Fold each of these.
Amino acid sequence: MAIPTFQRKICLLGDFAVGKTSLIRRFVYNRFEEEYLATIGVLVSRKEVILPHGIVNLLLWDLAGGETFVHMEEAYYRGAAGALVVADITRPDTFGLLNVYATSFLAINPQAALVFAINKVDLKEDFTEASKRAQDLSARWGAPHFFTSALSGEQVQTAFVTLARLTIESHST
Amino acid sequence: MPDPIAILKESEWGEVCARLNIMFAWADQNLVIRDASRRLRVTVGRDLTGRTLSEAFPNLLGLEDELRRIARGQAQPWRIPGFRLSEKHLQPYDVLFMPLTESGGLLMVVRQMDIESAMERELRQQRNEMALLQEQLETQTEALQLTQARLENLERERKSLMDIIALDIQSALSIAQGYAEWLQRALADSAMSQYEQALKLITQETEHIGELVREVQAFQRVERALESMAWRPVELAKLLDAVTGMWRDIAKLREVDFEIHAKSPAPGISGDPELLCEAMDRIYNYMLFLADPPATVRVELNAWPGWALMRFTCSRIRKEQALLEHRSGHALNARQRAFQLQLARARIIAEGHGGHLSLSDETDKNAVLFWLPAESAPSDEALPAGVKKPPFQVKKRPVEETRTPSASKWITAGRESIRIDVEKGRVWLNDELIKLTDSEYRLLLYLAQHVNEVVRNEELQAHLGKDGRPISLASLRVLVWRLRQHLGGNEGAGQYLRTVRGFGYLLVS
Ligand SMILES: Nc1nc2c(ncn2[C@@H]2O[C@H](COP(=O)(O)OP(=O)(O)O)[C@@H](O)[C@H]2O)c(=O)[nH]1
Ligand SMILES: [Mg+2]
């Protein structure tokens, strides 16, 4: 019997410079680079994840960040099975935007799965405030959250694999 | 604009492509490509007909459901700006998917991103970078403000130190002067023991003055980051043991005991062991001053992330001291001020190591906290950045003669800026006559006679002594310091009078 294979489009959402591109780079190529380059348009990267359910071929859509794209978001969100919604632990204002991104993403893909990533934990020692806000988010959206670092690689794999699993379980084709 | 489908139907494909600058493929309802424009084939670099859309363009994987819905007219046409045709293609395209109503199926139109939208994206990137830079600027400003606050603190400390010292020097001086006058007037008298008593007091007070001056010098050196610190790894626990050992006997006489609690492993730090010993010394002195015997001084050595912390507390504190407001110099008597001075010096040493000293206020009022950065890089940058202040000014006494003498017997030094008229015993600094005391002159002359040679401390002490008794090392240092001030301090010719640490002095020719 052939192993089932799934194709899943995943969007990375979040304010600019929170580390979306870096998280993909860490997950797909296991690399980290210091320089910040805003993504122009969309870059699609692929990564295979093996789960008990089968092989999941993740298509990671890296979008240009920032609010200017709000009027075009539909173009990027369509057809996605899940989203990794990213905040930067050192910039509290990026937390507030998580709800905005989650809302507009689910408006277009109501069945999609969400995972929150609180990124750059290598830069901060005290998580108390961030933990509270992340727990609120998880409760509100029924979605897990992870404290990640694209720099150290901490929790990056777990966050993406969890998202892959959720897209299979919630959205089986 | 005419319907592109209509144009496509009527024209040769190549001509249409050229005119609208577009590439396209069209696929049936199963998303299998039926035909594609030549330019698209060339761009992708292979034949497209017969493949599915997602085989031909792997970035479309996962979108099959959505594309089928568009082909069937169940979903709106879809435009994706800035899309890459494959992972290898970095060029962004505007891609449009729309249903072909007549033939049934899907039309994929691919157009190079227009210049405006490319530019808009470029601008957005720049804006994002600026926003990021601004954030960084804000954090750096904060850090700068912190540093400035520290410097201001240091400056405050300096001012109060100067006030204290000025007062103490004044009173010590007036005592010494008073006794000296009294001695002169009473010279005819014969009660020798009284003279001895007076002389003892004068000596005592002048020694005190010397100490205060050294205090000022030490402060000046730290403040201007000139204190040479011998950086090396320091084992704090050992250092603490050593200092405590020295204090234990003195403290026992006053019924004060020491307790050391060192967390293991002790935090590793780098620093100047001598200076750190001195700081601990000062803190112990302060704690003994606070203690109400019988009492125990407790020292805890703790490791924090990034810091080593030494916490000094005392089990019983003298009532009047407990009430004493540590922080302000107000209404303190001379003795209390002197002890404040101890802490001021310890604080300067802490700051010189990139750490700090604080007094905890709330729970137990009299704890002294001495923080040092753990594993700090052995770098001079950790020293307080040198706030350039004019060196401690010594008032120049008026001089009678200001004309450069013609030829007599000369010795020059300090790149010709210092000239000594040996016959007349006069010194000229850049064509200005300066007045030196006898000992200062003798010191300068001796160094000038051994120009470019390191002269040993002992040799200078012996040379400057009287009746075969050498002067003390402390007096020599004060003398050198005074001479240097006469020569214009470290910014002027004073820089040519060099200290060779632990050995002696050198005057450059
Ligand atoms: N220290 C640290 N820096 C990170 C981390 N992730 C991203 N960065 C840095 O943050 C900046 C923006 O990252 P990027 O991935 O381009 O953000 P994007 O705009 O969300 O795609 C870059 O300078 C990265 O090097 C992280 O986990 N830790
Ligand atoms: Mg990016």
Note: Confidence is low (pLDDT under 50) at residues 325-330, 376-407 of chain B.
Amino acid sequence: MILIPVFLSIILVYTVFAVYAERKISGFIQDRYGPMEVGPYGILQTIADLIKLLIKEDIVPQSADRKLFIAAPAIIFSAIFAGYAVLPFAPGLEASRVSVGVFYLLAIISLDVIGLLMAGWGSNNKFSLYGAIRAVAQMISYEVPLSLSVLAVVMTCQSLDLQEISYQQSLWIGDYSKISDSNYLLGIESLGINITEVGGFLTWNIFRNPVLMLSFVVFFVASLAECNRAPFDIPEAESELVAGFHTEYTGFRFAILFLGEYAIMLLVSFLASILFLGSWNSPFPNMGFLRLADWTNGYPGTFSGIAWGTFWLISKAFSLIGLQMVIRWTYPRLRVDQLMFLCWKVLTPLALIIILISGFWRLMMN
Amino acid sequence: MMTKGHINKGAKNTYWGSIAEGIVSLWTGILLTLKHLFQALRFKREPIGVENKDYFSFDKGIVTLQYPHEAIPVPDNGRYRLHNEIDDCIVCDLCAKICPVNCIEIDAIKSTEEIGKTSDGSTKRIYAGTFDIDMAKCCYCGLCTTVCPTECLTMTKTYDYSELDIRNMVYHFTNLTPEQAEEKKKLYEEKQKEKAKPKSQEAAKPGVENTKEVGEKSSIKPAFKPTIKPPVSPPKSAEESNVKSEEISGTSESGEVKSEEKKVAKPVFKPVIKSPTSTPKPAEETGVKPEDKAGTLDSGEVKAEEKKAPKPVFKPVIKAPSSSPKPAEEGSEKPENTVEPSETGELKAEEKKTPKPIFKPVIKPPVPKAHQTGEEQADQENKENKAEEKNKGSEEPKSEEVKKPAKPIFKPVIKPKPKQEGEQGDQ
Ligand code: SF4
Ligand code: SF4
């Protein structure tokens, strides 16, 4: 319970600076500065925008379905925020260590779709409804490759517990993992190279099972679609639908929707980091007398363990968000048919093949 | 990095071809944006103008110019906000005349003496009571700066001077306060009166008769005369105040206003003279008054005062002499002549052409017989004159000459003196 306000404030602060970062990155990509006037180098611009947003009039359209319209932002944000409950930020630091964490996360994120549909339908506006319909079609479609790619990880780690998955990628696999007690190079025990004490990026899931690199790509692409981020932003499609499902929202409600949008970006980035990129573990391996992994990790349960763990996880998540932003400002929006082609004809078959190979790979692991 | 050349464009017709093309183009695209992203962190365009040889060398990095903090220098021949160095301005009015959008407004006040020299040695003889440039209207054509003989009107490099209130876009360049301007005007008028005195005195007696007659017949015109006369009789003060108020109200058009007043006054006298014996005066007066009111652009109050005050004054005077329109003409002509030298060439030309004809036509007809008709004609003329004056900011002598009624318009310039004459005569 204590972690709820902590996460909430982290999300708020993150959102403020993510919006700023996004504007800066888009500016630099387009050879501009981005915000420069409010605060040094424009760093307070988002805060100013936020204040403006909060003092705006709260409008509920007369012909809107009032209950749905008002409930939708709350459902969207709370569905996303609930996902943070099972994230392991550091060894020993998670709000709830449920043994079905991955399953719970995928399920609770799916609730998001209901909120979007409520917002689009309740607004009683054709743009909102189109946006909502597109969003639902897109998110339900992309949950298939998303879930399949996560399934490959679950097969590799033999667990739905996110903290267990994190421990398996750490130096303390022997002490804390309930499933395996040592890591081998590329996960193949028969190679005989035990890297349990080496750690670093070599024990990340994408190296324990190299097929998961492809799985990571599938997950990342599908998560972009799940977040309604460009190039999968046809639910919002400014040039076609004004603002999609949140066309009619103003003031605080719009701020909540906006917050939800950035919160889900962060959530899927956390998830990708945990599942594929070594969770809260340092990327530096121990090399002979250079005990980089030892130096940049803290023993579970200690303060340094929490500090390093939080640092690495957040760094990885922010790197992925940065990548999401660059991608957003690079690629044009997909057409609906291209979207469906990519989902059903490319990502889903690929994810199925990955699962098949992961199964075989798992057989070669200990 | 693969380039477009490596992409098999026809590949998109196949499943694997589409995927391969998609991956290659995605990779190419993200490398491109990442290149810009990192270049933007290291390189930046400098705020230099196109005349700088490095202008085209900034092909990388941020192109944004943070305007209020940095700005590309304005070229030397940039045409932006106007500035008038009023100390060097001879108030020749050329700039106002050539301006295609009429955004320069000048109220010239003649000086009684040489004011000084401009920095290029030109002699200044005219004060700028008003020198306003409405930069909101200005189209930045620069014509006014090219015609300015002393080159005191220039276009500066200041281009960032927007205002919240458009009225603030009017720039006042005069170095006189309204009070000072008023003072200069009075000074000039008094000077003119002094100059006119000697001549008017010569024809004073006849002039007096004329004026008296005129006063009797047409009370409206007398109103103006009174202004001149003030010293002689009580009504003068009222008249003066009237005149002043008129001038004040018409600050921008003060010159015109005065001229109008003067014009009105003169015609009045002549017609009046001719019909000394008739009783219709009141009717005429009433009829004339409205015309005057309409004719004078000034406030109704001023006119009313003029009309009321002047009449009583004149009436006593009028009754005595019933003849001798000629002297009046002479008197009027003389003052005109005296005026001419001091005024600018243009003014002189107008004066010369217009003044004489104006008086003669008006005066002569009445003398013979029909006072009433003459008066009526005069009234009509006055009306026409006024209308014309209103319509025409600057009068064209020729057209006016052709139309006799029009002539009075010119007189205004000259007339100030006639008033003096009238005053002298009264005295
Ligand atoms: S620049 Fe042209 S438009 Fe502007 S004041 Fe001069 S003449 Fe008039
Ligand atoms: S043209 Fe020059 S000197 Fe003449 S009035 Fe204009 S600014 Fe003054």
Note: Confidence is low (pLDDT under 50) at residues 1-5, 205-427 of chain B.
